[in-house]
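Good morning,

Attaching, inline, the backbone tokens for the sequence recovery test we're adding to the shared suite. The designed sequence is right after.
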């Protein structure tokens, strides 16, 4: 073997070594992104677990777990359903993100980024549709509120939700206090034996800041009097009008919340896609 052949062979070996080191020095999964992704999702995983636990605790307090037919008997909206749905989605996404990052599992990471992207698309679509079809959205919210007025006494969580909404917004009913005629306990029909007949819930009453005890009977018989006298005792503005007045005043807050949520979602998608790219590069170089 000549000297030139030996030199060529040594050059080929050196080239192979350089290629070998090049492939593995640059193709690796970033520990920074990996543990950022894990930390990002562990919070949501724990939050999802907490939401699910709170939801089942609320159902156990209401006896739903011992009698599941109570879920189907409720004609209004059960807030516990909202807590459980949010908790379940958050738990699944947090689990997929945590395990996908730690185990460098491409399938779980793609599932995570795909679902987050789909949720973001739904949020954006809902915001655009709500802006374009404001009249239909207003009518849907009005019908939704009236349906829950009918079921006010059927579920304690729904009752607390409506009371909080009316107290915070200083409103009563969807359009006016007469909407409470839809509820069997508050309607003014002559055959109604309820003591709350022709009244409104206490959350409709104008409260005195000096009162230390809530007067739950303040709305009794108020709608038996003439309409002009209502304003001194209860709120006469409907909650739909209160909502329409609240949105323009708090537009920047609503927009800020939407932007923060969107940025968090974008960060999650970015971390997941970056990890997927790193893992695919390592696998490509390995094979």
């Amino acid at each position: 073997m000549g000297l030139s052949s030996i030199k060529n062979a040594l050059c080929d070996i050196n080239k192979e070594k350089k290629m070998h080191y090049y492939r593995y020095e640059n193709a690796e999964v970033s520990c920074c992104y990996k543990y950022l992704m894990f930390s990002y999702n562990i919070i949501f995983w724990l939050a999802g677990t907490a939401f699910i636990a709170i939801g089942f605790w609320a159902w156990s307090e209401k006896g739903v777990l011992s009698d599941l037919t109570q879920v189907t008997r409720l004609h209004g909206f059960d807030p516990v359903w909202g807590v459980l749905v949010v908790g379940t989605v958050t738990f699944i996404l947090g689990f997929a993100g945590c395990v996908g990052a730690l185990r460098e599992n491409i399938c779980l990471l793609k599932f995570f980024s795909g679902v987050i992207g789909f949720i973001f698309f739904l949020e954006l679509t809902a915001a655009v549709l709500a802006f374009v079809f404001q009249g239909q959205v207003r009518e849907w919210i009005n019908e939704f509120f009236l349906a829950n007025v009918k079921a006010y006494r059927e579920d304690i969580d729904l009752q607390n939700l409506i009371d909080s909404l009316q107290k915070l917004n200083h409103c009563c009913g969807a359009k006016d206090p007469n909407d409470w005629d839809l509820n069997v306990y508050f309607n003014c029909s002559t055959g109604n034996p309820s003591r709350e007949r022709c009244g409104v819930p206490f959350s409709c009453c104008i409260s005195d800041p000096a009162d230390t005890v809530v007067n739950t009977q303040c709305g009794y018989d108020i709608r038996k009097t003439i309409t002009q006298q209502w304003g001194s005792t209860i709120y006469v503005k409907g909650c739909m009008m209160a909502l329409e007045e609240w949105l323009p005043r708090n537009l920047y807050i609503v927009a800020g919340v939407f932007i923060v949520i969107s940025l968090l979602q974008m960060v999650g998608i970015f971390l997941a896609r970056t990890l997927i790219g790193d893992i695919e590069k390592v696998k490509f170089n390995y094979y």
